[in-house]
Amino acid sequence: MVKICCIGAGYVGGPTMAVIALNCPSIEVVVVDISVTRISAWNSDQLPIYEPGLNEVVKQCKGRNLFFSTDVEKHVSEADIIFVSVNTPTKTRGLGAGKAADLTYWESAARMIADVSKSNKIVVEKSTVPVKTAEAIERILTHNSKGIKYQILSNPEFLAEGTAIQDLFKPDRVLIGGRETPDGLKAIQALKDVYAHWVPEDRIITTNLWSAELSKLAANAFLAQRISSVNAMSALCEATGADVSQVSHAVGKDSRIGPKFLNASVGFGGSCFQKDILNLVYICECNGLAEVANYWKQVIKVNDYQKNRFVNRVVSSMFNTVSGKKIGIMGFAFKKDTGDTRETPAIDVCKGLLGDKARLSIYDPQVTADQIQRDLTMNKFDWDHPIHLQPMSPTGVKQVSIAWDAYEASKDAHALCILTEWDEFKTLDYRRIFDNMQKPAFVFDGRNVVNVEMLRDIGFIVYSIGKPLDPWLKNMPAVA
């Protein structure tokens, strides 16, 4: 029986291994992590992450050929194929701080593999890593090999949270990069054989190591670039009276462009986009490609601009101050159908409003009160480091309360800010909400989910990203 071990039981490792186990009943799959809490959660009925369809997949194979364990060394030692899915956070200090990936956890994983291995291994990079990481890992393993042979493969994930299980069952492509040597090609084939249990062969792409590593960064940079492009257009639409939804629909009809990732919003979030672009910028700078680095930096700048622009719209619309005013925040996750708050635009918007002394009442159907308070008290990039390096118990931001539904969050509020596109926000009883709010009652829709005309008929003053401005807003400055 082939044995697979995955180091890291997070958003990538857990779901990926569950789908492999389900589709490959003849392979034993063990997910290991040093976090007792996380492994206990995977072994319970309350999984540590929320992802539609994940629970059902885990239930079908847990205890059969899918196992979760904290005995890292034992399972690494026994495995034929080791997936490494550990954090590669952005460095917060030292060389490359604020841009470069911190490979501390990758390096310690590689050293541990070298320490405990007694047989040849295929080591697979699953977490997003900078180009040439494989070379560094290879050196660590080779110099500590004790006669054992290692093959390093790059197998980046292309999952979108909220549809990760679907993406794993029917991927656009599976990318495997390896050394173009006889042993390297054998290792590529061994991993290809695993995916071939359910992925059509023409969707399994093989490349050299460096192409596979760079393809992941490039894919995320291209997707983020599309969002920043449409968000830049949204500012121009507001200035000219155009409607960004109509513009993006017309643009997306061009078969060379396509309709995906052209929804204007308050900005992109998630664990990958910003981190991967910063990483790309750093690699470009290290290779003397200043112009290329500046090009990709602009994608992040536009994203930051969009969040600031949104906050400025809120403040300037409400008589240039939100001090002491209650603002209902609808949604805190970075997108619907996930409880993930990593780099969510809601953090920057909330901090911007708190900076002007607003009182916030935050509602999200999947994010806990503890997580929201932790995010609002944490320094940038700290979220991606292990929990023991994060603030232990957030003291909590006094101006923030967590609501248990949208109606409570909006009661007596001066304004609502919709920051996540949860489906329920489309069908709320806005007449009831309006009746319970302070007047004038504002709605700032950062996701274009509400029916603007219907809300205006009720009596709301509505700002919707990239849409023709409410008469109230027309003479208000967009940027402070």
Evaluate the radius of gyration. 24 Å
Give the termini distance in whole angstroms: 64 Å
**What is CATH's topology name of the largest domain?**
Rossmann fold
- Helical fraction equals 40-55%
General shape = elongated
Order of strands, widest sheet: 3-2-1-4-5-6
Please give the CATH architecture of the largest domain: 3-Layer(aba) Sandwich
Compute the number of strand runs.
Answer: 14
For the report, how would you describe the main beta sheet? Answer: 6 strands, parallel
Provide the fold topology.
Layout: E1 3-7, H1 13-23, E2 28-32, H2 36-42, H3 54-61, E3 66-69, H4 72-78, E4 81-84, H5 104-116, E5 121-125, H6 133-143, E6 150-154, H7 164-169, E7 174-178, H8 182-195, E8 204-208, H9 209-240, H10 244-252, H11 273-286, H12 290-317, E9 326-330, H13 345-355, E10 359-363, H14 369-377, E11 400-402, H15 406-410, E12 415-418, H16 430-435, E13 442-445, H17 452-458, E14 461-464
Parallel strand pairs: 1-2, 1-4, 2-3, 4-5, 5-6, 7-8, 9-10, 9-12, 10-11, 12-13, 13-14
Helix pairs in contact: 1-3, 5-6, 9-11, 9-12, 11-12, 12-13
Description:
The chain has 480 residues and is of the alpha/beta class. The chain folds into 2 domains: 3-199, NAD(P)-binding Rossmann-like Domain (Rossmann fold); 221-474, Rossmann fold (3-Layer(aba) Sandwich), CATH 3.40.50. Helices cover 41% and strands 13% of the residues. It has 17 helices and 14 strands. The protein has helices at residues 13-23, 36-42, 54-61, 72-78, 104-116, 133-143, 164-169, 182-195, 209-240, 244-252, 273-286, 290-317, 345-355, 369-377, 406-410, 430-435, 452-458; strands at 3-7, 28-32, 66-69, 81-84, 121-125, 150-154, 174-178, 204-208, 326-330, 359-363, 400-402, 415-418, 442-445, 461-464. α5 packs parallel to α6 (133-143) and α11 (273-286) runs antiparallel to α12. The radius of gyration is 24 Å and the shape is elongated. The relative contact order is 0.09. This is UDP-glucose 6-dehydrogenase. Keywords: NAD, Oxidoreductase. NAD(+) binds at residues 8-13, 33, 38, 86-90, 127-128, 161, 272-275, 342.
